[in-house]
Design brief:
The structure is a single chain. The chain is of the alpha/beta class and 334 residues long. Helices cover 41% and strands 17% of the residues. The chain is built from eleven helices and 14 strands. The strands form four sheets. It has a seven-stranded parallel β-sheet with strand order 3-2-1-4-5-6-11, sandwiched between helices. It has a three-stranded mixed β-sheet with strand order 12-9-14. Strands 7-10 form a two-stranded parallel ribbon. Helix 3 runs parallel beside helix 5. The chain is globular, with a radius of gyration of 19 Å. The site of uridine-diphosphate-N-acetylglucosamine has 20 residues, from strand 7, helix 7 and strand 8.
């Protein structure tokens, strides 16, 4: 059985769908701090399969132990955690407590129950100002610009120390680039609370007239059109990367680190134009000052994941825009 923490969240729910489609036995835990109960029903509807669910906080050691006692868990994928960059600057302790103490509690319980296969959701944010582009996994890490990013960096270090102390652990660290889009059914998707900080959720709200216009944060970067360049990856491609990571842990032992990106860099203006073309909706925008902590260009070299996991992203920027919009349309937010 595979335990998925944060399985009702954005990336977690898409991964649970892929796991169930692969015929895996899945247990989800979530405390719905940034997700909805309804997502669990949507997952069942998409897959026509059932799974076990516990509404618990992964910081609650007692309840977490109960899950391990009651089930024969083989591996754990950890999606639970806070993820809003701006909020993490305002509430650093909340972020350090939830993300780091949560991961520590989970790992310690895993150790007690002798479950030692672990997949961790990290982020390209650990590269800070990237040493080179495209970014390979051996680029230096550190220099994160906010507590959210630092929690990812620290948990990676904790995992490396843990593995060093006991190499019977098998660990995959996945460094996500910029996940966007939704499952093509339109039943699950991204739903940030309040005004979104990330580009795609903001664009869909402008296109659906919930927000007036997009602010493009800077058009004077050293990029092809002056706006920031990122490696957007369809969340379903990303979810499939987790299946490959689990397969890796079933056959090879060690601690492995992979970038999950497409290897393509697209600018903010590329994204706006593609979104308008695919959906036929207008995305009014204005040029605003640069956002603090942003870098000009960030995209992956995904070669290692292709070679070692036999995984690569297949969906295009058009697919990402189409599916992000489809979710909004299906959920009555046009
Ligand atoms: C951000 C986080 C990163 C996190 C990732 C999750 C920061 C500094 N980094 O990455 O740690 O892992 O989200 O997906 O927040 N943009 C606009 N207008 C907007 C929003 C964004 O022009 O209203 C631009 C940004 O300047 C950037 C690009 O769009 O060039 C992508 O921004 P965003 O979606 O926030 O992602 P990142 O900043 O790359």
């Amino acid at each position: 059985m595979i335990l998925v923490t944060g399985g009702a969240g954005y990336i977690g729910s898409h991964t649970v769908v892929e796991l169930l489609n692969e015929g895996k036995d899945v247990i989800v835990i979530d405390n719905f701090s940034n997700s909805k109960k309804q997502t669990l029903d949507s997952i069942k509807k998409i897959t026509n399969k059932d799974f076990k669910f516990y509404e618990i906080d992964y910081l609650d050691r007692e309840k977490l132990e109960k899950v391990f006692k009651e089930n024969q868990i083989d591996s754990v994928i950890n999606f639970a955690g806070f993820k809003a960059v701006g909020e993490s600057v305002i509430k650093p302790l909340d972020y350090y407590i939830n993300n780091i103490s949560g991961a520590l509690t989970l790992l310690d319980v895993m150790k007690k129950y002798n479950v030692k296969k672990f997949v961790f959701s990290s982020s390209a944010t650990v590269y800070g100002e990237p040493e080179k582009i495209p970014i390979t996994e051996d680029c230096k890490i550190g220099g994160t610009t906010n507590p959210y990013g630092t929690t990812k960096l620290y948990i990676e270090q904790i995992l490396k120390d843990l593995y060093k102390s006991d190499n019977t652990w098998d660990i995959v660290i996945l460094r996500y680039f910029n996940p966007v889009g939704s499952h093509e059914s339109g039943l699950i998707g991204e739903e940030p609370n309040g005004i979104p900080n990330n580009l795609m959720p903001y664009i869909v709200r402008v296109a659906s007239r919930q927000l007036k216009e997009l602010s493009i944060f800077g058009n004077d970067y050293d990029t092809k059109d002056g706006t920031g360049v990122r490696d957007y990856i369809h969340v379903v491609d990303l979810a499939k990367g987790h299946i490959k990571a689990l397969q890796k842990l079933e056959k090879d032992q060690g601690l492995f680190i992979y970038n999950l990106g497409t290897g393509n860099g697209y600018s903010v203006l590329d994204m706006v134009k593609t979104f308008e073309k695919v959906t036929g909706k207008k995305v009014p925008y204005k040029i605003a000052p640069r956002r603090e902590g942003d870098i000009a260009t960030c995209y992956s070299d995904p070669t290692k994941a292709k070679k070692e996991l036999n995984w690569e992203a297949t969906k295009t920027l058009e697919d990402m825009c189409k599916d992000a919009w489809n979710y909004i349309e299906k959920n009555g937010k046009k």
